[in-house]
Design a protein that fits this description.
It is built from ten helices and no strands. It is mainly alpha-helical. Helix 8 packs antiparallel against helix 10. The longest helix has 75 residues. The N terminus is likely disordered.
């Protein structure tokens, strides 16, 4: 005479992706991964390469020569003083003009023109030197590199290291089942209800002297023993399973984070290499 019925439980396993604990860890991982994938715009990296390029070896001497040209353009070159030249011409003519009969005879013999020519030539040379003296002095001076600024050089700054994504994989494990889902007390109740439905009591079963009734009592005790011991055994297996799964998840997460950082590091290395190549090209073109 069977009195115990199996307790019906749902055989459908819950989707772990719908577990709030799992979703919380995955959402954080996704957010950290997006931050890790961020990088400065190409224009910024290109600008850094340009600023790091050194100027040409003759940069300062070329600047000094350019400054020298500017000085030549600014040098004072006064115009010849026509009035001064005419005044001298009149004065020289006045000197050689005969004032007496004897002077007239000397004048007619010649030679006075050479005196006038010599005086005028000296005046012309003096005015020429005055007009071009500053220009000659500046032209003959050695170009000075003093004060000639060189191209500012700013080394390419290293890209700041990205923090490793924080993954607490153990927190993604499902929480232990509630006591109500583990408890087998319902099986005790089912046995008691079955005995009540058949109006069987412990005393009647003992006094029946019938193996069938004795088997009912034996089965009832077995159900009670299983109901008392089952949850504890389940908790032991559950704890071991969750601990093992958490350890495996931590190992997988570490490998995943290491892979992400490796990809990020490789990307940074490629960018740095391209910046160095651009810097070298610009230095050749300068």
């Amino acid at each position: 005479m069977a009195v115990a019925r199996s307790v019906k439980r749902s055989s459908k396993r819950a989707d772990p992706r719908s577990d709030p604990r799992y979703k919380r860890v995955v959402d954080k991982l996704n957010a950290d991964s997006r931050k890790l994938k961020q990088h400065p715009p190409p224009s910024k990296k290109s600008d850094e390469s340009g600023k790091a390029a050194k100027g040409p070896a003759n940069e300062k001497s070329a600047g000094a020569r350019a400054n020298q040209v500017d000085k030549l353009e600014e040098a004072e070159t006064p115009k010849p003083q026509t009035s001064s030249f005419l005044e001298m011409l009149r004065a020289e003519i006045a000197k050689v003009m005969p004032k007496t009969l004897g002077d007239t005879e000397k004048f007619m013999k010649g030679g006075s023109g050479n005196e006038i020519k010599s005086s005028l030539k000296g005046e012309a040379n003096a005015q020429k030197d005055a007009a071009t003296g500053d220009l000659k002095q500046t032209s003959n001076a050695t170009p000075s590199e003093a004060g000639v600024p060189g191209k500012p050089v700013t080394p390419i700054p290293p890209e700041p290291g990205a923090p490793a994504p924080s993954v607490n994989a153990a927190e993604a494990m499902p929480a232990p089942k509630p006591d109500a889902e583990v408890s087998l007390e319902a099986s005790k109740t089912e046995v008691a209800d079955a005995k009540k439905d058949t109006k069987q009591t412990d005393e009647r079963l003992k006094n029946a002297n019938d193996p069938r009734f004795s088997s009912v009592m034996t089965a009832e005790k077995a159900v009670q023993k299983q109901a008392d011991a089952g949850p504890g055994k389940y908790r032991g297996n559950e704890g071991a399973t969750l601990t093992k799964a958490a350890g495996q998840a931590i190992g997988v997460s570490k490998k995943g984070v290491s892979s992400l950082l490796s990809v990020k590091g490789g990307s940074k290395t490629k960018v740095a290499s391209k910046q160095d190549q651009q810097k070298a090209r610009e230095e050749q073109e300068l």
